[in-house]
Design goal:
about 300 residues, Rossmann fold, four-stranded parallel sheet, 10 strands
Length: about 300
Amino acid sequence: MTTRAFRVWGTMAMVLALTASVSAADLCATDALERDVCLSEPARRVVSLSPGATELLFSAGAGNSVVAVSAWSDFPPQAAALPQVGDANRLDLEAIVSLAPDLVVAWTDGNSRAQLDRLADLGVPVFWLAPRTFGDIARSVESLGRLTGYTTIADREAQAFRSGIEALEARYRDVPGLRVFYQVWDQPLMTINAEELISKAIALCGGTNVFADLPRLVPRISVETVLAADPEVIVTAGRGDPGHDWLASWKAYPALAAVASGNLYRVSPSLLQRPTFRMLEGARELCAILERARARL
């Protein structure tokens, strides 16, 4: 090999090495457990282990790369047709391994760490999600887009989501406050604390979660504690069953501020209950509800 050829070869090798290092960096993301997940190439076979993760993968543009999902992964509609590999209580690890996934996306609040550590021991990359803020939702989509090779789509959609949230913040920043009780369930009676994203949506719309200071994310409470808090608005989503009035029992307490003003509302069940991009639509609906509530006080 001549000196000139050697130099050309050496230059090409350096360029290739630099390109490889940049590509490798582009295929790394830090998950909710503060673990750096790096892939040698974009994931083309992805298994999603929660409905929220499924939605976020589709939002990132990676829907065609999802080969299996968990139970209750019903949005977008095409996700419901994918094979299911278990739910929050039990995963079919054998089925997951047989799919030869390049990436498994898990949810810290629902999936078993022990089960997924077994997958990781088999060499299957596991990326954990736990969105606690609107910013976390956007960053989760950006990370999933990076790991699946859909960076352009993911970044664009994440920015659109951020812009929508910022618009709501600006619109409702100076509105009169409202004391809000969000009812997750009626029997047993359950609500949310400040760390739950629905509580952040309430704050975004100018409301105050009357149970924000409770220690658990989704605490059980009593009717007496609600009466003592005297919320001006009561909101619930229920389970999506239109035949059941989830708020009817509160009408037995006419002195309750929310009842006295007729501020008992039901929101669309699927929009606020998962920390996904649909929360923007849910937050808009919630803000409109609280605007109507203010007009009644």
